[in-house]
Design brief:
- This protein has a domain of 85 residues: Immunoglobulin-like.
- The chain is 6% helix and 32% strand.
- It has 1 helix and 7 strands, in the order αβββββββ.
- Strands 1-2-7-6 form a 4-stranded antiparallel β-sheet, with no helix packed on it. Strands 3-4-5 form a 3-stranded antiparallel β-sheet, with no helix packed on it.
- The radius of gyration is 21 Å and the shape is elongated.
- The termini are far apart.
């Protein structure tokens, strides 16, 4: 399996959105929230996923596994009272987030476990036992 680099700045539809939908507030960059970065790796018996969600309340995070697809979604809100015009630089994103990851091995989503500590979401999903190939003897009729 090859390593897929994550780029928070690459959005394939961004140019199209800018040209045709720039007047819609839902599609403007500041209103879209963010896409959390993930690390996905395998151990002998599980697929592990780590995601940095600093500043996010764990109660506002939802994790699901369905058809070997992991979905992490949630929301974070801005709590400061600084007016927009007083910013010199604004890179921290707030709002809803959503991330889906295709898992590299068949997993048992019903036994998945998620922990949240110091802003790091750690998800452990046990691998599903693969059915062993069955050899069938071919009988030849004479």
């Amino acid at each position: 399996m090859s390593l897929i680099r994550w780029s928070p700045f690459f959005e394939p539809m961004e140019e199209l959105e800018k040209r045709f939908f720039s007047d819609l507030p839902v599609l403007r960059g500041a209103d879209r929230g963010f896409v959390p970065a993930v690390d996905v790796y395998e151990t002998k018996d599980a697929v592990m996923v780590d995601s940095s969600l600093a500043g996010v309340d764990p109660d506002d995070v939802s994790v699901t596994v369905e058809n070997n697809i992991l979905t992490i979604k949630g929301e974070t809100e801005k709590k400061s009272e600084v007016e927009e015009k007083d910013y010199y630089r604004k890179e921290v994103r707030y709002g809803s987030f959503y991330r889906q990851v295709a898992l590299p091995a068949p997993v048992d989503g019903d036994k998945a476990e998620a922990t949240f500590e110091k802003g790091l979401l750690k998800i452990r999903i046990p691998k599903r036992a693969e059915a062993a190939a069955k050899t069938i003897k071919v009988n030849v009729k004479k």
